[in-house]
Q: What sequence folds into this?
């Protein structure tokens, strides 16, 4: 159970509602994505959108089209990331969530009415514009409204909510997979309408990001928003102190928000970290388990793929919950190393089992089990902590631009992996089968080296403290032991409504 003293004590009514609305939106991301991944393994889906395979004596989706169906959607993803980031930066986090939810209704209508493979392909691409917008805004919004003590938990919940949506749609698809005709896949698609409507109705009942409001010089609104998010949990003096610290950090950081500054000076290091994290999140092979898992398990033939999808979703949800519980206790680096090591052991074992000629039922079952362990290792930390690190590392004024850049790298890596997997798996091409695990094991080894030497430990530090530590040139390996005190000071009313009129004293000490 979550400790109330450690996590729940930081939530007041406004923060809890904001957390819930964002979680519901992310739930829909997992729901939509997993619906496509599961339905493509259904016989009715393959009959509607596939081709007759005389050798197998049934309809099937050719590997070439399967590759495109699971990779061209990232064109929409990339467009959504750019659109979402620009909308979020210009009009705010709430308006971005409203616009993306309204847009989600368009591909939802198309999904339930598609009759050709070209229509369903276009539908998935357009659906991913919504998903890309969500990736651009949600982790940033979460990181900006949450207290530092639970920021890792809150931003990491992005993956937990996503996996919750995956589990629900896996159960739906398991039930509808036994139906005859197109209802088997149209029923899951028909559920795409529910969550966007809920989010559109609820989004303006939660406060806007105080940090975003300050970047737009809307100081009074920013103070009011922060007050709503902290009232009852902090005194007015503490809220004023936090607000003054935020003003100080925004006014005194050297970065002024120029996009090119992402690749200049001290920002280059920060950009490299978030870009590499997003690359490794996808290049290590998560799409193999999530996107192609149902089809891969069906081809192995040891267990009902839809039943196994439910099992995988439950295991992943439990591992994501464990990671959430530990992230603000154990820290980012230990969990990332554990997660990457876990994935490495599972995927290289799967590859080794794939070298056995004429594998028995037991060997095939072992391959499926390793795929499950690989996916659970990913959701334990490498998946959720990518969002945490991507939002807490960038400079305050460059957070939207940094998120946009990192997300584009994420999309490109995901596209390349998703496009390549069918060509690596099937006999008419590379024919690696489960030996594809060796490819991803090599990339995971590089990811482990990256985490050891390049990822700083930011547990328990505010975004303003992290910003200051980068600007002061603290070595990445020393972030964990470096203990900056809170940005504190007396807020002096020297200029009425002028911004930055508080004198903020910043103390720090290094713990040996």
A:
């Amino acid at each position: 159970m979550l400790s109330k003293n450690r996590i729940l004590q930081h939530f007041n009514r406004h923060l809890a509602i904001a957390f819930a609305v964002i979680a519901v939106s992310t739930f829909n991301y997992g729901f939509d994505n997993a619906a496509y991944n599961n339905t493509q393994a259904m016989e009715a889906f393959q009959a509607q959108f596939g081709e007759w395979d005389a050798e197998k004596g049934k309809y099937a989706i050719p590997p070439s089209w399967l590759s495109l169906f699971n990779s061209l959607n990232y064109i929409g993803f990339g467009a959504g990331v750019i659109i979402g980031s620009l909308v979020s930066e210009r009009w705010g986090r709430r308006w971005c969530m409203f616009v993306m939810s309204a847009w989600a209704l368009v591909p939802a209508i198309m999904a339930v009415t598609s009759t050709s493979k070209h229509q369903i392909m276009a539908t998935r691409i357009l659906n991913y514009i919504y998903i890309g917008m969500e990736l651009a805004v949600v982790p940033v919004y979460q990181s900006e409204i949450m207290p530092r003590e639970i920021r890792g938990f809150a931003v990491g919940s992005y993956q937990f909510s996503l996996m919750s949506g995956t589990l629900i749609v896996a159960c739906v698809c398991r039930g509808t997979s036994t139906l005859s005709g197109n209802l088997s896949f149209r029923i899951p698609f028909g559920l795409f309408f529910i969550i966007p409507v809920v989010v559109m109705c609820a989004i303006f009942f939660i406060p806007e990001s105080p940090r975003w409001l300050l970047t737009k010089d809307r100081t009074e609104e920013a103070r009011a928003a922060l007050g709503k998010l902290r009232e009852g949990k902090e005194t007015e003096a503490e809220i004023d102190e936090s607000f003054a610290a935020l003003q100080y950090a925004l006014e005194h950081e050297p970065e002024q928000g120029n996009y090119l500054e992402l690749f200049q000076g001290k920002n280059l290091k920060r950009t490299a970290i978030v870009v590499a994290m997003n690359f490794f999140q996808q290049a290590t092979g998560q799409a193999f388990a999530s996107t192609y898992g149902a089809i891969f398990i069906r081809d192995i033939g040891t267990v009902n793929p839809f039943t196994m999808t439910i099992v995988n979703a439950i295991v992943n949800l439990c591992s994501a919950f464990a990671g959430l519980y530990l992230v603000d206790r154990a820290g980012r680096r230990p969990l990332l190393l554990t997660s990457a090591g876990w994935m490495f052991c599972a995927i290289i074992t799967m590859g080794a089992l794939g070298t056995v000629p004429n594998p028995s039922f037991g060997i095939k079952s072992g391959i499926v089990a390793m795929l499950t362990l690989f996916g659970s290792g990913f959701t334990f930390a490498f998946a959720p902590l990518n969002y945490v690190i991507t939002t807490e590392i960038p400079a305050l004024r460059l957070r939207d631009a940094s998120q946009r850049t990192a997300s584009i790298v994420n999309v490109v890596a995901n596209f390349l992996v998703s496009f390549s997997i069918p060509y690596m798996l099937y006999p008419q091409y590379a024919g690696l089968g489960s030996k594809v695990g060796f490819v991803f094991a090599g990339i995971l080894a590089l990811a482990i080296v990256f985490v050891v030497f390049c990822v700083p430990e930011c547990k328990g530090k505010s975004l303003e403290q992290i910003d200051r530590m980068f600007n002061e040139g603290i070595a990445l390996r020393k972030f964990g032991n470096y203990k900056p005190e809170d940005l504190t000071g007396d807020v002096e009313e020297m200029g009425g409504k002028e911004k930055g009129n508080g004198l903020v004293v910043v103390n720090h000490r290094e713990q040996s």
Residues 11-206+253-465 form a domain with the Growth Hormone; Chain: A; fold (CATH 1.20.1250.20). The first helix runs from residue 13 to 39. Confidence is low (pLDDT under 50) at residues 486-512.
